[in-house]
Amino acid sequence: MPEGHTLHRLARLHQRRFGRAPVTVSSPQGRFTDGAAAVNGHTFKRASAWGKHLFHHYDGGRVVHIHLGLYGAFTEAPVPLGLPVGQVRMRILGTEYGTDLRGPTVCELIAEPEIAEVLARLGPDPLRRDADPGLAWARISKSRRAIGALLMDQMVIAGVGNVYRSELLFRHRIDPYRAGTHLQQSDFSAMWADLVELMKVGVRRGKIVVVRPEHDHGAPSYGPGRPRTYVYRRAGDPCRVCGTTVRTKQLEARNLFWCPSCQV
Question: Is residue 52 flagged as an active site residue?
């Protein structure tokens, strides 16, 4: 599932390519026909993101709300686009570029005031200037759930996925099974500041960069085109810092990765 920086990059891309101009919107697959018709020919005012949610704002107060989920993806190309390939839920055509959306968990038409209902289910987004980390800390500090689970809870912090979760905890030497009630506020403040900077790098460079320069050597990334990581998807490999075997275990149905020596 794409992490929050990916949605912010998409919002910036769509803003550049479609913003402030009328666009043609269709649903070749047929599952978003009415929603596409409601915004077809209207001005694409702007795009915004909050966590893993993307919003396309149109004139007249209409908004297309998108959550990519596990399988959703946009593909872009200069116009004219060819015939749709695969299950294209939504196609947007601008003057110079077009984009196809396939496989999202959510692609729905809502009214501008309904955005608040979506955001009410989300915690602060580290990539937004108006983010209030105090809201996240209030939830973490009162919870007995493991911090490794809380970081993945979108109601606590919006936009954090498995890579940032695993790597952030390693960078701050925190046991992922430590209860939220046992986390020090100073530790959380340091993690939040680090997360903001890491995700900004993700937006700027289009990839996750989490390994510090002094540790950026040794074993390659876990897959072609993937980021070099400390622990994520490195179960059974030696820790880049201490050499201890990296472990993995499921935590609330998601694979967790950590170093049992560095993270105590």
Answer: yes
